[in-house]
Specification:
The protein is of the alpha/beta class and 329 residues long. The chain has a single domain, classed as NAD(P)-binding Rossmann-like Domain (Rossmann fold, 3-Layer(aba) Sandwich). An 8-stranded mixed beta sheet has the order 3-2-1-4-7-8-9-10, sandwiched between helices. It has a two-stranded antiparallel sheet with strand order 5-6. Helix 5 runs parallel beside helix 6 and helix 8 crosses helix 11. The longest helix is centred in the middle third of the chain and has 23 residues. The protein is globular.
């Protein structure tokens, strides 16, 4: 059960550990990884670290020209492939998946790092709320479509980027698309809860086929993710000062923020484990009753297996995609 799985392992890493720290002893020569959002913020640091230890990295990108320009600056750019894809457009996700199914034979690591936060109300597809569609549904479809590549690898892992923002909202089962009033923070919170539940059920139904899944909270980091927030909002939240300097207590550098996702993707401590929420390069404990996101840990509703299966079924119904299956074995 979730209560026993969410037990820290004592990884030896901390909140201060960097991307380079966690991959120091990792060798991914001959392996292939996919990183959505792999050209910006934490995704860029993730791509850089994976290439450094020998991996080929596939980077789906909504802005492929911008992606190539940024990625050209990293050592080993010749091992990076940019694939046009917009997570909010399922036709685009399908086209990207078709391209990758044709060009690749295996996929060892899939890191779902792309996302949006506190976005103004926007509808995509058949009227889906855009943060839920981008952060959850787009990744749900992509991983389902690429599942044959994951099962062809030896011990593939999927890493779903969540956030302490999941404390803001459980899944709004009676109004998932905010048809009765929009709140940008509740919408973000719901999408981040969905990112955890996705990993929980994916692991349950895929582990017997050699694929394990993890959700991660990277920590507080100022990146392009805050692009929908004004400076005044970030000052009011205590994240930056009037000059734009990061002053939020416990905020990380992008390299430190990328560390937990890389740890989940590569750590030997996680062999034969999965379906857990990680933070600060370790499995996170369950949050205490009444705790806030600042206190760390994971809310019980976000790692509840029944919630996870319910969301999987709802996602399959919304998207018409379920190549993996809906029931744990």
């Amino acid at each position: 059960m979730a209560n026993t799985r969410q037990a820290p392992l004592g990884s030896g890493f901390t909140a201060a550990s960097t991307a380079d720290d966690v991959v120091t002893d990792v060798d991914l020569d001959g392996r292939t990884a996919l990183v959505t959002g792999g050209y910006s913020g934490l995704g860029l640091e993730t791509t850089r670290a994976l290439v450094k230890v020998g991996a080929r990295v596939l980077v789906p990108a909504r802005r492929p020209d911008v992606a190539r320009a940024r990625l050209e600056e990293i050592d080993g750019f010749d091992r990076v492939t940019v694939v046009p894809m917009d997570l909010a457009d399922l036709a685009s996700v399908r086209a990207a998946a078709d391209q990758l199914l044709e060009s690749e034979s295996t996929l060892d690591v899939a890191i779902a790092a792309a996302g949006v936060m506190a976005a103004p109300e926007r509808r995509v597809g058949p009227g889906w709320e855009s943060q839920f569609a981008t952060n959850h549904l787009g990744h749900y479809v992509l991983v389902n479509l690429l599942f044959p590549l994951l099962t062809s690898a030896d011990g593939a892992r999927v890493v779903s980027y969540s956030s302490a923002g999941h404390f803001l909202s459980d899944i709004r089962w009676d109004d998932m698309q905010f048809e009765h009033g929009y709140d940008k923070w509740q919408a973000y919170g719901q999408s981040k809860t969905a990112d955890v539940l996705f990993a929980v059920h994916l692991d349950a139904i895929a582990k017997d086929r050699g694929v394990r899944a993890f959700a991660v909270h990277p920590g507080g980091i100022i990146t392009d993710l805050q692009r929908h927030m004004t400076a005044e909002e970030q000052i009011a939240w205590g994240w930056i000062d009037a000059e734009g300097n990061v002053v939020g207590p416990g905020f990380k550098t992008p390299s430190q923020g990328a560390a937990t996702g890389l740890w989940a993707a590569t750590s030997p401590l996680l062999e034969n484990r999965g379906g857990v929420y990680c933070e600060d390069c370790d499995i996170a404990p369950l949050a205490r009753p009444g705790a806030s996101g600042k206190d760390g840990g994971v809310r019980d509703y976000a790692v509840d297996p029944q919630n996870a299966e319910r969301l999987w079924r709802a996602s399959a119904q919304m998207t018409g995609v379920d190549l993996i299956g809906t029931s744990a074995t």
